[in-house]
Amino acid sequence: MTRSYIMDQPDERNRLDAMAQGVIGKPLDRPEGPLKTAGTARYAAEYRMDDCAEGVLVTATIARGEVTRIDDSSVMELPGVIAVISDERMTARAAQGGAGKSPVRKVREVQYYGQPIALVVAETFEQARHAAKHLRVEYRETPDTIVDAEDDRIAFEAYEEPTIQGNLDQAMTDAAHAVDVTYTTECHNSAPMEPHASIGEWDGERLTLHSSLQMLRFNRKELADALGIDPEQVRLVSPYVGGGFGSKLGISPEGVAAAVAAMTLSRPVRVVMLRQQVFQCVMRRSETRQRVRLASDADGRLTGFGHEAWVTNLPDEKFAEPVLQASEFLYPGENRVLDLQLGRIHRVTAGSVRAPGEAVGMQVLEAAMDELAEAGGIDPVQLRLRNIPECHPSEGIPYSSRKLEECLKRGAEQFGWDTGPRKPCQRREGEWWIGTGMATATRVHNLNEAHARVTLRANGTAEVASDMTDIGTGTYAILGQIAAEMLGLDPSAVDVRLGDTRFPPGSGSGGSWGAASTGSAVFEACEGIRATLAERLGCEDGALTLKDGRAVTDNRAVPFAELLDGQDIEQIGHFKPGKITDAVSAAMYGAFFTEVAVNAYSGETRVRRFTGVFSLGRILNEKTATSQCMGGMVWGIGSALTEDLIFDARDGHIVNPDLAEYHVPVNLDVPHLDVLLVDERDPAGSPLQAKGVGELGICGAAGAIANAIYNACGVRARSFPITPDKLLDGLPPV
Q: How far from 606 is each of 434, 610, 671, 702, 724, CA to CA, in Å?
């Protein structure tokens, strides 16, 4: 039985606060934590299967052209080699998130350096890797291919209709204070700890793929489309995923290759990407060039707002990094220009990397806001407080719950923000210049359709099942808490089963929508079970209290086991966002405050303190929410100081395709992270009154660090990451 809820308007019922169990919001541990720490949680590549062969992808060594010959004979006599497969069903790149159809399958038409073109299968991984390195491939290379983002031949076109309101040029001329600045950001890689991995099994009629994926209901369709079979013939299994950050939203080449090999050879085949292949042939965040124009009156209130961005992708990809996403709603300015331009380049596919859009757009916007604060002699916090619009500045629709002002004020108080006149180079400790900076945080709130099955079992325990995934965010804990709260159970009495397409299709993990969307499906299923229990007790739901495994009404307390009388109650919940998505502007908000030290001789930057204050709607689990915010702030440090995916300008190959050379922050780079969560309920966020959590912590964080660097040493670096070489020439004399 399915119970559906289509959300067309804000849900003011506040049902969770009316429940009696008292577990929602509590900082509960992840139930799967012991399995992960003990090494018994089984990830995609770790399933043991009889007669499982090993496959290694072969990737292109040119940027563009055609594979004219793959010489199988060059490796077939090597020890253990079973087959060389270059099948028309194999995919040349990963699918974009939510595509629901196969990505490009023309593996012999090379579009970027590192594109998969074949799979070598052998008895052992070492044998397959050795053969893959020695496979002879011949190409017909296309000359003068554009691989350099600085190439003047790139023709940019408007990705969507620009927003143009009023006259920004005139506003800039008439402004009491104005800034017109251009910033750049470099490419990023998701770099999940678990590499992309899959094991394919084919029984002649059905395919089972154990794989590391984020959105199974879409991935199932993508894989079936690539293979030319019905989605019902495909089972995907992903109970544990070792990080994704957008790179596992769509089916990727190793998954399709494992499936094709298993169907071809009639035996299981495991394909695990080498770390370098994860960088070379999955997803990148596009580099950006961004121009920000801000005009204000004498009090700092914005009269003009312009944000233009230039990004790139492969010629036939429809995705463009949504750099301007936050700029559409965050700040006012009746004279506006928002324009996103997309250029074509032969580099690995650009796609969703954690917080697509705001991750890079917000860090630039917040750095530009700091420049406006300096131009107007206004405290940066006050500048932002004076520019909180009453309604969406372009669409005129109302905001949902928005506690940005509280985040800014609480963050300033918690951090000890100095509101006095701000000038750079005012404090030095030995050879270190010390400075502080701040920034606003925001990330658009997303919802997605989801189903979940909840079973209240005859023994008084419950089970939650959905193909929803847990990519390290705490989904197991959160869905269990929702069911426990709604059904009056201890969380230990709720079993949560995820990551299997045999279960009802959840929202998937992406866009920070997982908990609010699939959580709402669990909530709705529990509402159905509560209605059944109320009917059995002959009372209205409002008169029913479920607590500690008992149903209470009219001074009667009936244990579930007695009430159920040996029969389970099963309910499928279905949640779907409706008209609410167009009726209000819903987003998460926050504020960052940081202190940095910049070495007066080397330009090295160290983050010394970092505070983040966030409003996220209802907090479903304080521990997992805090952890997600911390993780985002760590990403902000990387985006500000170290992360830069470098492409060779000659052939487009990635120069630093591993964790040794692509520098993510490590323990010594990260100070104590101070996270505050603002109490909030957002009726427009979801029936749970919760919003997204996973991505807000990165959105603007790097801007706060850039502003602190300027305050410390007086160098305004407009190119991220801010590495020492970009500061050295401008450092003041010691």
A: 10, 11, 9, 13, 11
Cα distance between residue 675 and residue 623, in whole Å? 11
Q: Which H or E run contains 290? A: strand 288-296
The answer to whether residues 39 and 95 touch, using CB atoms and an 8 Å cutoff, is no
Q: How many CA atoms lie within 13 A of 379 on its CB side?
A: 12
- Name the percent of the chain in helix, strand, coil, to the closest 5: 25, 25, 45
pLDDT tens digits for range 530-572: 999 999 999 999 999 999 999 999 989 999 999 999 999 999 9
Render pLDDT for 3-41 as a digit per residue (tens, 0 to 9): 999 999 999 999 999 999 999 999 999 999 999 999 999
Q: DSSP assignment of 193-228, as one string?
A: SSPPEEEEEE-SS-EEEEE--S-HHHHHHHHHHHHT
- Alpha carbon 658 to its chain centroid, in Å, reads 20
Tens of pLDDT, residues 65-120: 999 999 999 999 999 999 999 999 999 999 999 999 999 999 999 999 999 999 99
H helices present in 541-609, as ranges: 560-564, 580-583
Helix axis angle, 253-265 to 216-227, nearest 10°: 50
Residues 233-247 have pLDDT tens digits of: 999 999 999 999 999
- The upper half-sphere exposure of residue 25, i.e. CA atoms within 13 Å in the direction of its Cβ, equals 17
- The neighbour count for residue 726, using CB atoms within 10 Å, is 16
* Pair 354, 695: CB distance under 8 Å: yes
Q: What are phi and psi of 370, to 5 degrees?
A: -65, -40
| Omega within 30 of 0 (cis) for the link into 721 | yes
Reply yes or no on whether the pLDDT at 421 is more than 90. Answer: no
Q: Could you tell me the two tokens for 566?
A: 């040996």
CA nearest 304: which of 416, 395, 387, 427? 387
Nearest to 419 by CA among 436, 404, 403: 436
pLDDT above 90 (res 1): no
- pLDDT at residue 584, rounded to an integer: 97
Buried b (16+ CB within 10 A) or exposed e, 227-245: bebebeebbbbbbbbbbbb
Residues known to be catalytic:
695
- Is 249 in contact with 285 (CB distance < 8 Å)? no
Query: pLDDT band at residue 420, thresholds of 50, 70 and 90?
Result: confident
Cα–Cα separations (whole angstroms), residue 102 to 60, 206, 222, 504, 661: 20, 18, 4, 22, 32
DSSP for 304-321 reads: EEEEEEEEEE-TT-----
Phi, psi angles (nearest 5°) of residue 276 = -65, -35
Average pLDDT score over residue span 483-512: 98
Helix (H, G, I), strand (E, B) or coil at 585: strand
Q: What percent of the chain has pLDDT over 90?
A: 99
pLDDT of amino acid 413 = 98
The answer to whether the CB of 610 falls within 8 A of the CB of 671 is yes
Inter-residue long-range contacts of 542-547, CB under 8 Å, 24+ positions, other chains counted: 545/20, 545/488, 546/19, 546/20, 546/21, 546/486, 546/487, 546/488, 546/489, 547/20, 547/21, 547/488
Per the CB < 8 A criterion, the answer to whether 632 and 694 are in contact is yes
Are residues 660 and 654 in contact, defined by beta-carbon separation less than 8 angstroms? no
Report residue 419's pLDDT band, with 50, 70 and 90 as the boundaries: confident
- C-alpha 192/C-alpha 43 separation (Å) is 13
Q: pLDDT at residue 485 above 90?
A: yes
**Rounded to the nearest 5°, which phi and psi values hold at 523?**
-55, -45
